[in-house]
Amino acid sequence: MPREKIVAALKIRDRSSPHYLKSECIVYLIRETRANNDERYFDELFRELMRRIDASLPRVVGERANGSENVHAAAARDHITGKFIGNLVEDRSSPGSWLDYYEVMFADAIAGLRTTYMYRARRDSARNEPIAADDETNEPSLAVERAVGSFDIKKELLSEDPIYRSRLIAAIRNLPDKHRRVIELTMTEMPIDSSDDSVMTIRKMIGVKSEKTVRNRRDEAHRMLREALSIGDHND
Amino acid sequence: MTDSHDAAEDILLAFAVEPRRDSATLERYLKAYPDLADQLIDLSLELRLQHATEEMTAPTDEAWVEASLAAFRVASSSQASEPVVDPFASIKPVELVAIRQSLGVPSGVIRGFSSRLVDIVSVPGSFIDALAQELRTTADNLRRFMAGPPRLELGVRYKADKAPAAEQEKISFEDLLKQNKVPDEQLQRLLASRD
């Protein structure tokens, strides 16, 4: 494909268009520019990749938008770009395998880098915060019991309303770590507990003694999500 | 950043691009890398959420895009990890004689370059261009080669009883010319085009 056509295709935002260039393809093309000196063409490819990185990173919305989470998110974007630039510079002088990840699945590779970064940032800032009260107890909280309704997150994520979906996603991202992880493990359909030691269970993964703690966290997470989305609070 | 950080990042990246994304894959990673369990679970959720937002588009931050491009330019021009080709490696001694004759300098001056003794910043651009052309390389490659520390020339080690050591400090082009007793008039001419 001639370069002018590629540059024109970069402007297409509609993913369903037959001329839409996938991010993986742009990574392939930018690696190919190693052999030529067309700076304008390189710049166009590079700019579009940066837009794709920007678009694939979650926006921080809601009440935590001005909090430390937002600072982490902005720093994560810079960290990811720095990493990508470093890999790209390296790849241009001696082609290696590092950029292969981006060429295979661009957005997922970016999510991979973001996860490590956010995990470390949260862990580092948690050292400066008071330790949260221990929720490892067999007593179910009354508030939790009351608010629990059926809430199938997997199904909700398929909602056809994009605004509802993005609010739900933001609410899940805003859950405290220990609740969010229980939610993810529940969605993978991992058993909560098992008498068989060889079976991987949510209880073992999150390192708590009782399966009740797992259920409590799951129910509490559901309550928080419903609250964030203002669902069901009229019935209380 | 330490090595262990990079190793964790590599494992997460490998997980992120797994073709089959299901609970069996996650379990396999959780079993293999129990230390990374929290991050693997975070990533598994992140990928799930990302796929739910895939078709949504948000306005991009163009100022940040331009800043990233500028950062790339800085990184690619100042990067030191790029392997530099030794422009003297493929030049035969007889060719070196021809080069010094064509440039009108004593052989010691050429050795000042092949041993990276001279500080390239002090060398006039026109001389770098001429030397690069004689060496069948680019001025840019010659500059990057010269940016390395002084090194021993091949052959020197066979001529002395004691193991010779490379010079530690670079010298200016002017000093290199003076050390090689380049006549004053010629010295001025060679330095004249200096920026």
Number of helices of chain A: 12
Radius of gyration of chain B: 27 Å
Count of DSSP strands of chain A: 0
Instruction: Let me know the average pLDDT of chain A.
Output: 80
Shape of chain A: elongated
Distance between the termini of chain A: 62 Å
Would you kindly provide a written description of the structure presented here, covering whatever features stand out?
The complex is a heterodimer of chains A (236) and B (195). Helices cover 61% and strands 0% of the residues of chain A. Chain A has 12 helices and no strands. In chain A, helix 2 (23-32) runs antiparallel to helix 3 (39-56), helix 4 (68-93) packs across helix 6 and helix 10 crosses helix 12 (211-228). By secondary structure, chain B is an all-alpha fold. Chain B folds into 2 domains: 3-54, no CATH class; 93-192, no CATH class. Chain B has helices at residues 3-16, 23-32, 37-52, 62-78, 93-103, 107-114, 125-134, 139-146, 173-179, 184-192. The chains are: A mainly alpha (236), B mainly alpha (195). Chains A and B meet through helix 3, helix 4, helix 6, helix 9 and helix 10 of A and helix 1, helix 2, helix 3 and helix 4 of B.
